[in-house]
Design goal:
heterodimer; A: MetI-like fold; globular; B: alpha/beta; 6-stranded mixed beta sheet; 15 helices; 13 strands; 39% helix
């Protein structure tokens, strides 16, 4: 047995710290909450008001743009119609809105962080254990503080989803930028390219296949979070599954599960196809 | 055109480069300095000048510091000590903005593995330097097209680099280097990654362009045949130390030490040496003539046709010396005596 008088009162510290945040800075978190919510409401409004066929055509069009091929768009149509006929359309749109916003926020946070990490070995050393923790910490651990700070509902779900989904994007952006050929970087310096232009014209375009792989991972992980997120009040397919489990209604749970799988397949293939297109000219012989 | 001079330039790699500088004044060699201080000597008190409008070859084995040296001229690497002047101006004191301007307008570079941007087409690669310095699209495209044509790649404007062969890729690299109309062109082992035939072609292209453009070209190579083929002046580095600077003829005829002698030992002297380098004083009564800037091989044909010594003449046809088969034989045989 470990001696009982040697203890770090971590639990107390964290609880006190969280109380201090909630009491002292609650207004700020409310502001962030409203800010995120305003975007989510708009995305949700668009997805839930537009007729089903408009959305189907839009996503199929995106699939065609990504692959230049009719196979994926056909899969998209079949998948979305399946969701509709299972009676899950509205729920799927809510889930999709949640996922889209989480992915957008992840990109806004993850890509710049990855870029900074690629430029600084010190930052990389600091970030790596943090990313490891974000990926391995059970989501429930940060789900509760998220609820305490943002209240029940969709915003803490998005925050938790971002925490869960952003690490692979950060890692792959960092990797992609570090993998850019040193001689190409040297060439761009030799022609007098400044740091920012170098990032925009050379590093980001050449890191794009890796960044797209990161976005793909991020999307998949965001969809993987929907059931857990529904426990704190996020609506959508996750809730359907959760309710199914709670009532021992296997059919309901399975239907919701299928809906999530269909969305995952669609967005996985689309983001992968964009990644593959970026790869086309990467010139590895 | 621009004149470059390197004055007492040293480059040391390691944790505290400045601390090692005093050791360079002693006779401790590179290995000893590495052993005692953990620092690597890249360049050691190198001084020499480069005339404008000429091709200056810097030669040496790998690890001799030649690639380090060439990166000093556009400050991809900064020296630990010393001064580098371009047209009299010390470029090491340039503020960041002026340095970028120098790289955008006055000095460009061609790389060993081409350094092309895989996500850009040939024309966008060639136009890269112009884009960086903010030229408008129409100018960029016109200029880029011109240089693509000059290096013989017309029709490949919209191709991506990975679809091109090595030789074609380096033509793109050369066109990109020339498109900004720099005074100085840095070529870092530019043809070393190409197979011998293509390399020979590229040397031809470079010499053709140079006859007209008269850039100041600094060309790094480890291949003496290449150095002799294109160099107006050759500088030889060993372990960061400048061993010899001179014309190709001087390097072959009077190598400064064993290191240089080993380089020149296997040279085909008949093709590398010129009549003017070995001819004897003008003699009378010679019927045949041979231009003094021809190679020994070429002169030999003319001597055989005349069955005896011939007069070496300058471009105006005035005799400047005498050359005989015997003399040529001596100099070609001379190479056999040198240790290899």
């Amino acid at each position: 047995m470990f001696p009982e008088d040697i203890r770090i009162p971590l639990e107390g510290w964290v609880n006190d710290g969280l109380d201090w945040l909630v009491v002292g800075y609650g207004d700020y978190f409310d502001a962030i909450n409203r800010f995120i919510l305003s975007f989510l409401i708009q995305i949700e409004w668009a997805l839930r008001t537009l007729p089903w066929w408009v959305i189907t055509v839009l996503i199929a069009g995106l699939a065609f743009h990504a692959t230049r091929n009719w196979k994926l768009p056909a899969t998209v149509v079949v998948g979305l119609v399946l969701i509709g006929t299972l009676g899950l359309w509205d729920l799927a749109m809510q889930t999709m809105a949640l996922m889209l916003l989480a992915v957008i926020i992840s990109i806004l946070i993850g890509v710049p962080t990855g870029v900074l990490m690629a430029n600084s070995d010190t930052l990389r050393k600091i970030m790596r254990p943090m990313l490891d923790a974000m990926q391995t910490l059970p989501p429930f651990v940060y789900l509760v503080p998220a609820v305490m700070l943002f209240g029940l509902g969709k915003v803490p779900a998005i925050v938790a989803t971002v925490i869960y989904a952003v690490p692979p994007l950060v890692r792959l952006t960092d990797l992609g930028i570090r993998l850019v050929d040193a001689e190409v970087m040297e060439a761009s310096r030799a022609f007098g390219t400044g740091k920012f232009k170098q990032l925009m014209k050379v590093q980001l375009p050449l890191a794009m296949p890796n960044i797209m792989a990161g976005i793909n991972q991020c999307t998949m992980m965001a969809l993987g979070m929907v059931v857990i997120a529904s426990m704190i009040g996020a609506r959508g397919l996750g809730e359907h599954v959760l309710v199914g489990i709670q009532r021992l209604d296997v059919g309901k749970g399975l239907a919701g599960g299928i809906g999530i799988v269909v969305l995952a397949v669609i967005f996985d293939r689309i983001t992968q196809a964009y990644g593959a297109r970026q790869m086309q000219h990467s010139g590895k012989d | 055109m621009a004149e470059i001079s390197v004055e007492n330039v040293s480059k040391i790699f390691g944790a505290n480069p400045k601390s090692v500088l005093p050791m360079l004044d002693t006779d401790a060699d590179k290995a000893e300095i590495l052993d005692r201080t953990g620092h690597v000597v890249g360049l050691r008190q190198v001084s020499f000048g480069m005339e404008a409008g000429k091709i200056h070859v810097v030669m040496g084995l790998s690890g001799s510091g030649k690639s380090t040296l060439i990166r000093h001229f556009n400050r991809l690497i900064d020296p630990t000590d010393g001064i580098i002047r371009v047209d009299g101006q010390d470029i090491l004191t340039l503020p960041y903005g002026d340095l970028q301007k120098l790289r955008q307008t006055k000095i460009s570079m061609v790389f060993q593995n081409f350094g092309l941007m895989p996500h850009r087409t040939v024309i966008d690669n060639v136009a890269y330097g112009l884009e960086v310095r903010g030229e408008d699209r129409a100018t960029r495209m016109t200029t880029a097209r011109h240089w693509i044509d000059r290096v013989g790649l017309t029709g490949y404007e919209d191709t991506y680099p990975h679809k091109l062969s090595g030789g074609m890729r380096q033509r793109v690299g050369l066109a990109r280097g020339l498109a900004t109309d720099p005074d100085i062109l840095l070529m870092d082992e530019a043809f070393s990654a190409l197979d011998p035939l293509i390399r020979h072609d590229m040397q031809g292209i470079l010499l053709d362009l140079q006859r007209e453009l008269m850039k100041t070209i600094i060309f790094i190579t480890h291949d003496l045949d290449e150095a002799l083929a294109i160099g107006d002046q050759i500088a030889i580095l060993r372990d960061g130390l400048l061993v010899q600077v001179g014309s190709p003829q001087e390097i072959i005829l009077s190598p400064a030490d064993d290191y240089v002698r080993r380089f020149v030992g296997n040279v085909n002297r008949g093709r590398a040496l010129k009549v003017s380098a070995i001819m004897e004083p003008v003699a009378s009564g010679l019927t045949g003539t041979v231009p003094a800037d021809h190679t020994l091989d070429a002169a030999l044909a003319s001597i055989l046709a005349h069955r005896g010594p011939v007069a070496a003449v300058d471009p105006e046809g005035r005799p400047v010396g005498t050359i005989s088969a015997n003399l040529i034989a001596q100099h070609i045989a001379g190479s056999q005596e040198t240790p290899t």
